[in-house]
Specification:
With 168 residues, the chain is mainly α. The chain has 4 helices and no strands. The chain has helices spanning 3-34, 41-55, 60-101, 106-167. Helix 1 packs antiparallel against helix 2. The radius of gyration is 26 Å and the shape is rod-shaped. The termini are close together. The relative contact order is 0.13.
Amino acid sequence: DRPEIMLAKEKLNDLEKSIKEYPKVKAELDRTFTNIKSDDGDTILKDKINEIRDKFPNNPFIEGYTKVLSLQNRIKKIQDELVKYNDDLYQNQEDLKLLNSDNSSDSSVESKTNTINDIKSKQKLKGQEIIDTQKDLTTAESDLKKKMDDIKKELVDSSKKITDDIKK
């Protein structure tokens, strides 16, 4: 074989291998992500991603998907923080009602009101963070899809180059 055909065959084999590995690895990463229930989920997911990257280096599909998963994990983490803020807000609002009904000091009421306002500000920031991260996620997903389409096109082109050479 000529050098360019050998290169095309090698590239074709690498692409085929990447395509074959992707569904299995994606399923494994999805399982890990789905099963995360604890605060150490970040560490568990990062460890699994690093393990996968070590096992399947240079697989563009896996690399793109790990970015998508990391963003999904970030959104989940922010949503968990929002749940905690909602709980804190509810508790502080209930405390404020008690303070108001007990004719507590103005400073106690003001302090509790400030705490409530701080929580609402944090909720707003986290809400915006979710929106921004979802935009990043959408971009990462579309980048992954484009990369997959480009690689599939490369696969077809490499196959065509090899087939054309065989016909010569």
